[in-house]
Every structure is written in structure tokens, then in C-alpha cells.
Amino acid sequence: MLMTIGQFSERTGLRPKTLRYYEEVKLLLPEVRSENGYRHYSDAQIEKAQLISSLRQAGVSVADIRQFLSSDQAQKEDLLARWRDEAAAKLLSIQVAHQFLNGLDSQTKHVHLVYWDHPRSIVWLPLEVGAGVAAWNCSAQDYQRRLSAIGLEVERSSYVRFPQDAQSTRCEIGFVIASQNIPPDQQVEKYAPTLFATLHCQANMPLPCKPIFATVQ
After folding, report:
1. pTM of this prediction?
2. Within-domain flag for 85
3. Does 35 fall in a domain?
4. Mean pLDDT per 10-residue interval, the chain, length 217 residues
């Protein structure tokens, strides 16, 4: 049985304006378009219309939905896996923002939020922070030169992270790299586009950033 756009709107819960938009972007075409221009939809299109609406509500782009609808099963599974990763990154961003705002007051310093709008790779180097600032800084600069020597482009700024063990004198310094050809002996972690909480510090701070980390923890 065919339905008018008004009837189809009632069955699907989607506004006629939305259905016309789906037609305009070629996601859902009416089953029949009469000579007088009236749109008619079939029962079989109800599930498809609701799937499109659900994916849009989940933040999936029109282009991705169009690709999904025309893909085979394996391709659909790949798209779903990517969308899940993207949703997880968005959820993490919301959690980070919530924690940041809960801990923020007019006296807060050093802690900032940074958004990466594209995937990044960071190569990490373990360092002994108890060796002193000069030795730590020299090691970091030497490692940066070695990365450049093997053809890895690195950003000027770097990142520092400490283990959960408060007694540890070890840390890791990380450089964001642009190269895709990463030697297998390098400790590299890939990060999806998301929001990060960072602590801004200078290399000449005593035991770089560790007092601030302790305060935040």
C-alpha cells in the first residue's frame, strides 16, 4: 500500500520537511512520484527512513549514510566500526570537558584543553626525571634530532607523561610526528580526533610538570 508524504510522516515520526530533504540529498526517494508531483511511499521504506534518521541523530554525515546504504555487508561493517570509534572519541571529549569544568576555578593555572581535529601519532621516549633538568632537556633535544635524522617530521612542542606510581622517577616525552613510515623500533601511539586535558610547562621547570601533575591527581 502506498502512502502520501503526510501518512508516511505519521508512520515514521519524521516531518515532511525532513523527508523532502532526504529526497533532495538522495538518501530516500519516494516509491512513486505522480504526474502532479505528489510523493508516495511504501511500507517497505519505513525501516529505511527510520535507519537514516537514527544515523543522522548519531552524528553520521549524509555522505557516509549514502555510502552505507549502497555498500555490501563487509563495507557496512567497516563503516560501523569507524563510526563507533568516532563516537567513543566524542564521548571521551565530553567526559574530559566535564572533568575540566568541574575542577576549574578563577585561580586555576597550567591546565588547558586542546582539541585535535585529525588523527595524530606520538612517539614516546622514556626518560629519568631525577637526573636533573639540564640532563633531561638535553636527552629530549637529542631524541628530537635523532627522529629528524631518520626522516620523521616532528612538531616543535612536545608532551610529557608520568606513570601512575607517584614514587617513580621515570617519565616519557612524546613528539607528534607527521610521517607515515614509522620504524618498528619506535614506541608510537595513535590518537583519534578528540579533546585532551594538557598541562602547559617549560623545559626548565624543576622535574618538568611533575609537581603540577601531583596537584591535579
Report:
1. 0.62
2. no
3. yes
4. 94 96 95 88 96 95 96 96 89 85 74 80 76 64 79 76 66 77 70 74 57 54
